[in-house]
## 1
Amino acid sequence: MIRSLHTAATGMEAQQLNMDVIAHNLANVNTTGFKRSRADFQDLLYQTIRATGATQAQGVKIPTGIQVGLGVRPAASQKIFVQGDFQQTGNPLDLVIEGAGFFQVTLPTGELAYTRDGSFKVDGTGRIVTSDGYPLDPAITVPSGAKKIEIGEDGTVSVTVAGQTAPQEVGTIQLANFINPAGLESLGRNLYAKTDSSGEPIPGIPGQDGLGTLAQGFLEMSNVKVVEEMVNMILAQRAYEVNSKTIQTADEMLNIANNIRR
């Protein structure tokens, strides 16, 4: 009964973590480019009371043994990089990636970060930057007096300057992909960083080498499905209640054992 108390406690802790992940998903239901997470769990070690295949008598082996599990533990919190829905905005600097890949931005430290959030702006120097002011990599600068910005499916950025009729090309937006995107480290602010698990970034031109194409005037919304998260929340709540009931029952059994009199 003491074993069941500790086992049920691990179940309650696991469901609390599950609820934390679900709450984070729901909190970011309207976050541009957000990718939902999923909590994965593993069963803990088993206590072997009777080994499977042990010899009971001469020539007789036990077909099944006795093993008692000791609970559950968190194994991973995995990002699900499924494409989110598109929302048309009409803003020429709003971009969406139709397919695989990440925008590359330069952090103040000089390191690269990666994002699916395509809500870009122009800063005071004309550079195309994120909402936090991080410039695209390679950097693209919109010249002063630009009246129209056009971004092609292949990332080509062209602008029409006042006094000119023909657009001029000012750069190309590159994307990067990873062998294991789920291994990226979440930095917050819709940014990811490479890790040993994600592998090295594989840069390229949109539409080539398995990378998605760009669409101007659209944003990728969060891939969180509210109904699915609400169902997961109900399941987590019921599992938490069941584990708490297990602790209560084990406590009652201990109480009965303590009150046995001759």
Note: The chain has a mean pLDDT of 92.
## 2
Amino acid sequence: MDELRKKARELLESGAVKVVIGYGQGSAGKTRAIFVRKVEDADKLILTDQCLTNLAVYLTKSEVKGLGKAAIVARPAVLRTILQLASENQITDGQVAVIGVGQDGKLVDLANFKAIEDFLAEINFELTAEEKAQLEKLEKMTPAERWSFWQDQFKKCIKCYACRAACPMCYCERCLCECNQPQWIPVASHQVGNLEWHIIRAMHLAGRCVNCGECSRACPVGIPLHLLNQKLAEEIFKNFGNRAGLKAASEYALGVFKPEDKENFIK
């Protein structure tokens, strides 16, 4: 933590950035995002195993952009998000100062997108054994069993949209769930509306999710939303060879087509 605080102080003192987005101590022993704007507040920054929030969610917020150039404490999931946002023209190289954090918890000097790409290229982003086991369990179900599983999960949804708020790839200024002319998704929390919301959101994230797990951590009723996103991410990789957040200039698999794509109707 001393190294992190020192780096933050240097960036703020030099005027290289106006704010450092990092982790601080929250209530009930939990961590939270903090925005350090004064040099003396750099000592409030912490970096522990509990610091898992994907801080990149703040990079597209107008309130944060208004503070001036930001530095961000970035673990691998945050680094992947930065590259994915760059590929979607949401941020540009040099717009954000990255305080990289390796898997060993040590700081990494990452001056630009190319450096981030090279750093991430050395990390294995395949699903963990536990994640694979969870997906395999679902895949072994019959279609009826799988439908019942997700129906049971989605009926718990209270439509709080915490998953959307926590997801750094949900950056639309106005979400379709807020549109009421026409009313695309019912406001009330009920079986049909809940299913529509989660399926639509999962499809919007297909090929874009960086598997940070923030949606499941944010869900107050414990819906394993990450399983949907992981499944779609694996299908995208299997069929198109793309993993989100590894290149600052990459194509969105569901937004382009190639003559060699498997579906004949495309040709």
Note: The chain has two domains: 2-120, 129-242.
## 3
Amino acid sequence: MIAVGLTGGIGSGKSTVADLFAARGVPLVDTDVIAHRITAPHGIAMAEIAAQFGPEFVAADGSMDRARMRTLVFGDESARKRLEAITHPLIRAETERETREANGPYVIVVVPLLVESGSWKMRVDRVLAVDCSVETQIARVMRRNGFTREQVLSIIARQATREARLAAADDVIVNDGATPESLAQDVQTLHERYLVLSRA
């Protein structure tokens, strides 16, 4: 079974594309979902997060206080690296387990920071990038998350450039002014290609 790494910048529409593959019966392994699970109440990362960062970073329900942690790691590079040293190995192990256990013709592994991490490219058979302009990213994230333009630009600045993602990609879906119908058709075309590749 082949593994396709699905990536794209914030606001590019990765989740929408992933859902379209799932609607075609393709199993999804989503690293963001795994990241939320390991930092949920009683998640496997929580004991180490509490030990490293202190109880003030644990919410009343036992999950990670995301707002507090986001504020800290945005302004403190060493704190970000400490958090990633806890979460990344756990996310990687869970992703590999779910990918092994996936049941389908091929599996889509959703990795927002696939290009940034460097090593993910070696763990998937193909890379699919969802691409759109930076202005489209900004507009979508401001509308969806209520962030300011400056906050969105700060997130984009920490991600791989659009050019780097496109250079790493085997396949690209352009999601700038795409209609739901045209996006679904693009996914269908790739789905058929991946079915052929998975049988090869």
Note: The radius of gyration is 17 Å.
## 4
Amino acid sequence: MMRALWSAASGMIAQQLRVDTIANNLANVNTTGFKRSRVDFQDMLYQTLRAPGATSAEGVEVPTGLQIGLGTRLVATQQVFSPGVWEQTENPLDLAIRGKGFFQILQPSGSVAYTRAGAFKLDSEGTLVNSDGLPLEPPMVIPGNATDVWVGLDGTVSVGVPGQTDRQVLGQIELAYFPNPAGLESLGGGLYRPTAASGEVVTGTPGQDGLGEVQSGAVELSNVQVVQELVNMIVAQRAYEANSRAIQVADDMLQTANNARV
């Protein structure tokens, strides 16, 4: 009977963690560049009372075994890097990636983090930075006398300069990609850090080598689907209730056994 109690308890713990993940997805439904997470469950160890293929007392091979599962556990939270919907902003510094790839952000430690959030701004020196003031890598500085800014699909950044008919090309934005984006570590603030699981970073020109193009004047919103998350929450709630009921039933059976009279 104790197996039922612990198995059901593991189910309640797993569903609680699933609800925590769903709640985080819903909380970030309006977060630019946010990627939803999903949970992966795995059954735990089994207690083998009779192994499959064992020989019975009559010397006959039994076709099936007798195993009792010991519950479930949460083994992974995987981020889903499907594209989010776009929002047109008409701000040339707002950038969205059409396809795969990440913007590169230089952190104060000197390391590079990666993001899909392209709501860039200018700091006091004209450097292109994210909402936390961290600069784009490689750095891009917009002159103070620029009349307008234009970002091409290939990441080329050019500006209009007073007295010149031709645009002045400042540089080109590079994108990065990983063989396994799901292996990236979330840092918060829309940033990701590479790990051994994500593989080596690949950088290149937007629109080449399988990388996406850069769309100016738009941002990529969260890929969270509210209806889907609410359905997942209901399923998790019902599973939690079912496991709670299993604990109650096991407790009632133990009480019946304790009250038995010879």
Note: The CA atoms of residues 104 and 114 lie 5 Å apart.
